[in-house]
Amino acid sequence: MLKAAVYYHPDFADKGYTTLRHRVKPGFDALQPLVNSGQIQVRTPTIDETAHALLHTTHSPELVERVISAGYHEVALLSAAGVIQAAEALAKNELDMAFCFVGSGGHHAGQNYCWGFCYYNDVAMAVNRLRQLRIPDIMIIDIDPHSGDGTRDLLAADPHIIHLNFFADEDYPYEDKNRGNYGVLIDGASDKVLAAALEEYLEREWGYNLLIVIVGHDGHCLDYGDFYLTTAFYGSFARRIKAFAAGRPVLFVLSGGSLPQVASEVIPAIIEGYIE
Ligand SMILES: [Zn+2]
Could you state, in order of their start, the residue ranges of all structural domains in the chain? Predict the structure, then answer.
């Protein structure tokens, strides 16, 4: 059986960013059947020295000051700590798959800036941890309908990172294929359109050791982003990712999305799709 875990902390719901926090507990509660049947473990992240150290090697002191002033330092660092700890467990083969809940977003946080419900770049911090653990090549697929500009800001220069970014917002042209930086603009994508756009990339051979998938249910047709996906998309996406990863470890990181009902359908669909 696949070794799968969910990283969750009640502070994500209690202290998370306003728009994002109401979906956290309903999304987690909907996983109870999978937890009760022993198909997924639940792990609780903690802010440790590694998370503190990675924060300061990833972001500028000025950004950290601004996040502290905004009141989101702890929940953002706890969110990143979960992603870091999941990445460590995957790198050490303790897990095959992990899904991280968060209290704030990460992919709009660059080295010295942040916006759009994001404060610290959880995925970039985890990538920096994976480099310390000597995982050579990492692929990041981001299907949140907003572009991952912060992730690109932090990781674009590294040729060992493939960043494949699907998005609906139009002001983000940057692509540098020589360094593994891909941007795919598909405004208003339906299930079929996004699946076809993904397939163009997933059918190719990519050299990577660990896959990170940034997934926002703001891409669901009822939620606030400009993709128009159904719940069924997320399940088939997870199955396709499993085939694509072909046994390599996969880390799913929750991104945008506000609606509790959507979270309680989409999050189990992803995890069930992957572990079934
Ligand atoms: Zn988003």
Answer: 4-275
